[in-house]
Amino acid sequence: MRAALLHGVYRLVRRRAWLVLLSAAIFSSAALFYIRDLPMRSSFLDIVPPGDPILTKFQEREEIITKNDAVDIILALQHPEHSPRDAERLKAAAESIVQKLRENPEFVSFSFTKDIQTRRGDELLSLRDEIFVKLREYQERLRTVLPATSEPAPGAPGVGDLIGLYAQINAELERIFGAELDWRRLALNPVELVKRFEELKKLNQSVKEEFDRAPGLIQNADHLVTDLLQTITEINEAIEKLLTWPQELYLSHDGTKLLLKVRPRFSSQRGLDYSRAVTRSVQEALQALKLETQGISWGLTGPYVISAETNYQLNVDMRNTTIISAIGVMVVIILTLRRFFYPILALIVLFLALIATLAWAKFSVNGLNLVTSFLPPLILGLGIDYGINFIAHFLHERRAGHRLETALKSAIVHKGSALVTASLATACVLFGLMSASSPGLYEMGIIAGVGVLIALAATLLILPALMIVSHILFRARPPSVGADPGVCPGRTRGFAPTWRLARWPIVVLTVGGSLFMLSQAVHVGFRFADEELAPKDLPSKLAQQVERREFDVGTSGLAEYFLFFAPTLEELRRINEGLAELKAQGYIDAVASLSMFLPSDPAEAEQFFKGVSLTLERDLQRARAAIERQSQELQRLQDLTVQIVRLKGNFTRILDQVALTGAGENVVPDIQAQIAQLEGIEASIQGLEAMGARLGALRDRLMQLHERVETLLQKIAELQQVQGLLKALPKDLQERFVTEEREFIVYAHLKRTTINEPRIYSEFISAVRTFSTDYIGYPMIQDHLERTMKRDFQISTLLATGIILVILSIGLGWGWALVGIIPVGLGFLWMLGTMRLTGLDFNFANIIISSLLIGNGVDYAVYLLHGFLEDRQIEVAWKKTAAPIMGSALTTMVSFGSLLFAATPGLRVFGLSALYGIGFTTLFTLLFLPALLSFVRPRAD
Q: Which parts form a coiled-coil structure per UniProt (predicted)?
């Protein structure tokens, strides 16, 4: 069936060469147009298995991620003055940028002031304590000025009592004057009269002192209420000022740079196109403002910009490495085949195959990801092998004197059969990657597997068609007829003793070196740190370094954060306590949550608040009652005045009676003193009546004070509670600290060592699980990818080995299949050992190296074994196959070696790993395998 198919291919190419080329040109043009905007997905989330719990959790929490992604604009003064004017210039520039970007509805939030700071919460809690101290101070003053109780002191007569007493005295005196009582009897009893006058004197003195003191008390109370009202106003202003969060400019340490954060509507995870559009919009706005003319330079960083620039750099690297690879491959082919024209034809065919492969990548999996980004050099490295072998066989036939058609038929039918076997083996190994759970490896398998088959089809169809058409157009001369330089029996006789002499040293050195490499290979690790594999010299990366160094922040967004979710306040406090311990142990360096603004001990704070609130309110109630009582007393002063005037009149009549009768002259001085006291009381009453208006005003102000204190205490009480605090916080902080489901969010910024050191990260996760079950963080994806792709690496390696053994056993038998796999196994082992010695680890870029090495490297052993099994003479087989094997290996190594010129570290790591693997595999194929085969006895003629 294979032979019939290959004969059909030959007939098609021979008879319809122009049609084949026209069809190829049309198809390639359409494919090239189709991939003009080939998507490049550079997010870690794109290589996480779909439906994975971690990916699902990130998708569920996308709203939180969206609110933390931002484009970071760093404004820098080119010629700073190191004065306050620097900040003014930077602020003015930031305001102009904000005004410009507001014209674009894609941007929803702007900030160039410092983010939430723990000190804001500390200030709020400290202010609360200061408020209570001040209120207690005024409470004590209130107690000293106003009566502590609303009732008069025992034994202290009120105005009503005075009215009653004076009325009683007046009534008694008037009864005397009305002859109801015997005046002479009273006058003849001076002791009784003096006693009554003495009591009245004391009463009058007490009343006068009380009335004289009242204006001072009212004035002091008025001053106190004024002071207390002013204090309440100041406290309210302090709270309002603090709750307006007047944050300072986000200046660098030296004050010459300003950080402006711009938040788009959607997260950077929305896709590469969105990140590009956002970045382009910001760049255009900044360029339109011409800040350079104002002496201000700017730089961009953040997940949007880094994603766009990384993708751009990947495209540049893909283009540059493809060009370098093509030039290098062409040079190697020219040197190997000693021809110039045919290598150009092979490269043309290979580029057409590459275009078709990229079109297949876009059609099947919508572009390339982090793992498949180095596909062009990969296809060039794998596909050029078919062109070299096809052209080498064709030239061999032409040198043998065969016509063009005969040489092409032999190349298609005979060499094509071997190429089909080799390509199927390589494709099957690559298709084996489709069993991986990671989309990165799965997509590499489906793209590269089909790409190898496309390269084979192009080699068997387009390359011979080009040869035929070029022969017709240019009438190319056939190579000179003669012995093929690749096979010279006369020059192989000396190889027999050479291999017999060298085989033991080669075997011993290989075995000894392999044991050493084995001791190193077992320590090769798996690291998937994004920053170690992404380009480091991008403008956004350099700006990110400035941001970290001069603004004390991590990467914009959540790349270095863990987010914890707490459904209750108790859970929130437990998480904060656990994170505080981890911070003390050095795993994290910052924690932000709503707890920063809540009392550390809510029970103690609540008890403290209730105590102050109740006692102050009780004292104010007493003061209000005392003022009310005083007001009522003042309202009765007129009645008291009537009684005093009446009493004075009665005392005057007594003096008149004494003057007429001469009786009771000894009481005259006392009566005169009583009259003088009463006149003094009258004067005091007149002063108190003038104080009535002030007392009414004081009563009203005290009522106002009570209401304002009550409002203030209520506000403080609310600030101690979650819901009240949420109302006080700005909206953007509310969104950052609380989800729409009313879950509390805690942000923990991890140290770089915690993220990048697997052991430390494992310790961190173990500690986190003791106090929380609901958390996410980008380092979780890194760790999960490491474990997932490590498992996929092991499975794909075993699967590739099994596939190759099965395919080799069909053509060579199980025994020779095991022999053929030895160079690949040794090459893989030495590659691992060298990676360990040079400090390389497996990552998402070079994780597929085992499948590529097994699929591509085994071809070299197959070529050598096929030649050896013809006559069991290793010298002849080595001479026939060494040059083609070396040529194929060199072209593959040149293709992968071109990745060393990439700016992306991940591509360089893959290229270096591939060079190690293919180089060692080729070395052991050309040295160790012949040394082993030299122990096999030649077949008897």
A: 613-640, 695-722
